[in-house]
């Protein structure tokens, strides 16, 4: 007698995404090949306009990755060598790594373990006369309250660079009932189009959004060796240009993004309903007025040390892929050993690193898949 294994449930399905786009992707790539313009050019310019308009920003500048978007934007904002830049220790390493790579000093404030977002009540206390800017991370697809953050930073003359690598299409409603997206209220915003993002390329890609024409101009020059005209260089820059083929792929996918994000929110609602009242599984809180992009659906597995890892292993045995984003905080990484931090400095971040588990939530799951995952989590968590 043979036993039928349950169908695997993966964290994403790029093959299904490709199928939904149909022949448009191939046609877009053929259009670029026929044009003979493979780096920057009209395809990139068109995507810059379209994505900026989608997010509500005035300007978009395509770059080669999300990390480069952070680095180039900080330079355009006037980052000084040795200056302090605030961010959080519970995020992908690039958020802080880009600060250090740019010659500045990453300075951390803790996150709220119920939301995984920067604690604004700790920002003011962390500022000093060496601080020049803040990089709030819109983790998992939820937006930090940027107007509230700027109420703290503007009187100090600091810039705010939003890390929107996981926040494509995410929104938040202000006191007047108007929804804004990442890139509207910060001095600039950095996006990644890595293939696994809600809006992903067929390779690497990134973009800087800003409302400032001056910042956009500076960013555009810095990404192209400081070029102001062919063979004329007004500053020292780098090579961080978005490829036309990636822009073409992203232009095809962008019109699908709202529907894909809506599907993610439907799955999230099923998860929230399933976990409501559980004493062992706690979904992260969604702040009122948030239109969450749910790049990840994160829960905290409560209980003894190792409970999260035990649940993850139980899911894997049933063919369910659940990931830990992130198992080790930035401030205790080997690369951060000279930044002046150690274990215990940021209890909220460290709690999440012990407890967080991200469940499958891509738009091509069926409702039954979500129910199966939720049941497996609750059973394993006890």
Automatic annotation (TrEMBL):
Keywords: Aminotransferase, Pyridoxal phosphate, Transferase
Source domain of life: Bacteria
Keyword Transferase: yes
A single GO BP: polysaccharide biosynthetic process
A Pfam family matched in the record: DegT_DnrJ_EryC1
Enzyme kind, highest EC tier: transferase
EC number(s) reported in the record: 2.6.1.90
Record PTM N6-(pyridoxal phosphate)lysine, positions in chain: 197
GO terms, molecular function: pyridoxal phosphate binding; transaminase activity
Active site: 197
Similarity section: Belongs to the DegT/DnrJ/EryC1 family.
Name by which UniProt lists this protein: Aminotransferase
Species in which this protein is naturally found: Engelhardtia mirabilis
């Amino acid at each position: 007698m043979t036993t039928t294994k349950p169908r695997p449930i993966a964290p994403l399905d790029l093959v299904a995404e490709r199928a939904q786009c149909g022949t448009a992707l191939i046609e877009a790539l053929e259009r670029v090949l026929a044009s003979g313009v493979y780096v920057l050019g009209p395809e990139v310019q068109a995507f810059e306009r379209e994505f900026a308009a989608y997010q509500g920003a005035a300007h978009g500048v395509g770059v080669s990755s999300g990390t480069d978007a952070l680095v180039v934007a900080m330079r355009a904002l006037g980052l000084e060598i040795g200056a302090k830049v605030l961010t959080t220790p519970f995020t992908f390493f690039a958020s802080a790594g880009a600060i250090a790579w740019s010659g500045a000093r990453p300075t951390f404030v803790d996150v709220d373990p119920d939301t995984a977002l920067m604690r604004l009540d700790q920002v003011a206390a962390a500022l000093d006369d060496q601080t020049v800017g803040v990089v709030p991370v819109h983790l998992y697809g939820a937006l930090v309250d940027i107007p509230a953050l700027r109420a703290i930073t503007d009187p100090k003359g600091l810039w705010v660079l939003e890390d929107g690598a996981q926040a494509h299409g995410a929104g938040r409603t202000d006191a007047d009932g108007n929804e804004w997206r990442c890139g509207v209220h910060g001095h600039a915003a950095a996006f990644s189009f890595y293939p696994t993002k809600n809006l992903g390329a067929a390779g690497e890609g990134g973009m800087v959004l800003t409302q400032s024409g001056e910042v956009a101009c500076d960013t555009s020059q810095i990404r192209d060796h400081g070029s102001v005209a062919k063979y004329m260089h007004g500053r020292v820059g780098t090579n961080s240009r978005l490829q036309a083929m990636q822009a073409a792929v992203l232009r095809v996918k962008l019109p699908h993004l709202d529907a894909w994000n809506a599907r993610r929110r439907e799955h999230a609602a099923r998860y929230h309903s399933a976990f409501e009242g559980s004493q062992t599984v706690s979904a992260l809180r969604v702040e009122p007025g948030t239109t969450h992009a749910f790049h990840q659906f994160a829960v905290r597995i409560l209980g003894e040390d190792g409970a999260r890892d035990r649940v993850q292993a139980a899911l894997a045995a049933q063919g369910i892929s659940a990931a830990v984003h992130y198992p080790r905080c930035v401030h205790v990484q080997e690369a951060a050993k000279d930044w002046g931090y150690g274990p215990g400095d940021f209890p909220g971040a460290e709690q999440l690193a012990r407890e967080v588990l991200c469940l499958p939530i891509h738009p091509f799951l069926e409702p039954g898949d979500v129910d199966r995952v939720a049941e497996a989590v609750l059973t394993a968590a006890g």
